[in-house]
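Input sequence (149 aa), recorded before submission:
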Amino acid sequence: MAADLSEYQATQKMNAGFWKLVGIPARGAELHKALREGVPYVVYKQLVSVAGLEHQELARYLVIPPATLRRRAKAGKFKVEESDRLYRFAEVLKAAIDLFEGDRERAVHWLSNPVRGLGDRRPVDMLATSAEVEAVLDLIGRLEHGVFA
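Predicted structure, token format:
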């Protein structure tokens, strides 16, 4: 039982570190409030950095047109729907990094290439809707547990 508790605490610490790094609360009321109020533009810049992507590349994955991205940079925060998409990307990125045991480069490579378990679609092309994100997270969960069917 003690081993389970220490493993859980270590996982929670690692999770908190990722969310703190990108600037989004990990869960709960703080997360809900941040998404409703609109996450700061700096979160976008942090996600670009953590994922090792180009600014416009992440915008494409999040379905945010370049002009809109410029307006959000000027305003300093995103609207609710855009904030939710940023959170969904962060959630998928975190899960992929965990799948590859902390190797961000391999995680981003996996996210950027067609995956058989997703009908040969790229996970980054499945971020626009919550149903698609759920499918990606479900596949990652199955891969972590060795369930390939």
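Checked by second reader. The two ends are 31 Å apart (CA to CA).
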